[in-house]
Amino acid sequence: MQFISKWFADLLQFFYGLTNNYGMAILLLTVTYRLVLIPLSWTQRKSMIQMKELAPKQKEIQEKYKDNPQEANKRILELYKEKKANPFSGCLVALLQLPIAIILFNVLRSTDVTGVSFLWIKDLSKPDLILVLLTGLVAYFQMSAEATDANKTTAITFPIFITFIGMTIASGVSLYLFATYVLSYAENSVMTMLFNRKKAGVEGGKQND
Fold this sequence. Notes:
By secondary structure, the protein is mainly α. The protein is built from 8 helices and no strands. Helix 6 packs antiparallel against helix 7 and helix 6 (129-146) packs parallel to helix 8 (171-208).
């Protein structure tokens, strides 16, 4: 973990050397971090899209066998097997990413950006209300795009939580969170489109056969 922390710190300083601006350095570091994680993100997105598509069928099974939970679970597992869906793969990928995200968060929090300005932000070491509100808004759109019936409440409460947290942390860290949610939303849109195209191609091939 110390190696990863040092790598992030060195990379941040490298980008600062290129741009002479910590705001740009944070954005470039965030983009690099997201690019490195694209293979893991694809696995997670694929699992989430599959589970979202299967949610209506799963709900239908639960309603049909509401008096027989064991049979409902059996039918749901058969559905997962038929559709080659793994409800746990997305969670495992998220758990793998979490320690890395925490390390990067701590690296940014420990970087001295006192008095450093970026765009409208006068001091990256202090909270910025506009950035905080933008981060909460983008977090809401990003989480709403991925929400299922099971986590719709979280898609509302978590952005509110992020907004309150943003009022207590340096805007340099909020800038990282903002960029992360923007990139995550973009990734989700692109990967959903690619996944649907791939799915349409497979189904079209089956029809031709």
